């Protein structure tokens, strides 16, 4: 069964801050690699420590941070950001992100 990609409100907000050229690259990558995929972990890297429930996908200098729900076959895109600060930002905001309502905005 294929996985469904769902953007959280935070991911949509962070994505909108990225320049349009990078947005297109990220959008294309998500469409080709995550949307309706069967094995969502094949292109990603599992995170460790406080972020161990998340997966990171590399798109140039940007990272897509996701939570994978195998039971419901959903990939929640939690945030998107530049590699230089995305992980520190995730650690600072992890409690907020985890509590954030996951919206049903299918990608």
From TrEMBL:
<keyword id="KW-1277">Toxin-antitoxin system</keyword>
<dbReference type="Pfam" id="PF05016">
    <property type="entry name" value="ParE_toxin"/>
</dbReference>
<comment type="similarity">
    <text>Belongs to the RelE toxin family.</text>
</comment>
<protein>
    <submittedName>
        <fullName>Plasmid addiction system poison protein</fullName>
    </submittedName>
</protein>
<dbReference type="InterPro" id="IPR007712">
    <property type="entry name" value="RelE/ParE_toxin"/>
</dbReference>
<dbReference type="InterPro" id="IPR035093">
    <property type="entry name" value="RelE/ParE_toxin_dom_sf"/>
</dbReference>
């Amino acid at each position: 069964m294929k996985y469904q990609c769902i953007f959280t409100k935070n991911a949509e907000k962070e994505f909108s801050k990225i320049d349009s050229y990078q947005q297109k690259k990220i959008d294309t990558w998500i469409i080709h690699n995550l949307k309706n995929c069967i094995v969502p972990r094949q292109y990603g890297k599992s995170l460790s420590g406080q972020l161990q429930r998340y997966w990171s996908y590399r798109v140039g200098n940007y990272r897509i941070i996701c939570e994978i729900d195998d039971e419901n076959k959903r990939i929640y895109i939690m945030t998107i950001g530049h590699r230089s600060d995305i992980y520190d930002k995730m650690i600072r905001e992890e409690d907020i992100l985890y509590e954030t309502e996951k919206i049903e905005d299918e990608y």
